[in-house]
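Hi Q.,

Before the meeting this afternoon, I wanted you to have the pyridoxal-5'-phosphate prediction in hand. No need to reply - just skim if you have a minute. The sequence and ligand are here:
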Amino acid sequence: MDNLDWKNLPFGYIRTDYNIRSTYKNGKWGEFEVSTSEYIDIHIAATALHYGQEAFEGLKAYMGKDGKVRLFRWEENAKRLVFSAGGVKMAEFPVEKFREAVFKVIQLNRRFIPPYGSGATLYIRPLLYGSGAEVGVKPASEYQFIVFVTPVGPYFKGGIKPVTMLICRDVDRAAPKGTGIFKVGGNYAASLRACVAAKDGGYASAIFLDAKEKKYIDECGPANFFGIKENTYVTPKSESILNSITNMSLIDVAKSLGMKTERRKVPVEELTKFSEVGACGTAAVISPIGKILDPEKNKIYEYCRDGKPGPVSMNLYNKLIAIQYGDAPDEFGWTTIVE
Ligand SMILES: Cc1ncc(COP(=O)(O)O)c(C=O)c1O
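Predicted structure with the ligand bound:
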């Protein structure tokens, strides 16, 4: 694509050439259909529209210096989609079919893969929803799987910068035994009031606390939380957060750098004990957090006072993105080349 300004692309939707679809009917998934349409024809009584039977994924393909396209840990996204499908009683989309669909959609839209060095990537969005008609509250008998791609710009234009976040105490994203561990649309709908209030107040995101006791950190909008304490990477254990693939990877990267790691409950007061804190997820890999406000408790936590990300976060970030782009050896076997 000659006419795309890769370095200045937003994290938004740009039309590409093709998407891939498959329909589940009579107990089985059908053949893939390659579509050029950006639209779907959906039954007015589809369970996705009324009862939120929907799950999605998000992963990226990276163009390397060697001209090879690498997909990062696609199998984890495939498995998470199976898990999310079970969470809202949908037909599961098989892992092997997921691989086939994702590879095919990348190959078909090759001209939209941003060049190495632009900081932009090809974002891949698999989607699964109940397409069958029901009026009573029950799972559909028909489902649709779609995967589309869109090129997205670097998350931090002009370099990685610490952000400010707001602790949210008046909205819960997910209940302890609810759907927070699944990547389903309803969780995002539930988070919007808090996220919009945080954005309107000039914050990068809302930090959600555990819904039951409001004592522990859950996650930061659409990203997991981590803190660095001496030589330890600490990240919350909670039954209401999404198990981030980036976070899982950072834990292994931290260990490989000789750090200790802990996944456990993280009380809000512990924010005073960390030297660095950050949010992690596919979109930004790491967003270092420079400041956290907790207005209801009249508290401000400050990190990165010089406006620069902390050294440990930068180390983790640099090592992980080097693997994703193929600049460093793939010592964990996380990348797959898309021929
Ligand atoms: C709620 C939530 N938490 C965490 C993450 C980060 O997960 P991952 O690293 O798999 O992108 C995401 C993004 O997918 C998310 O939506």
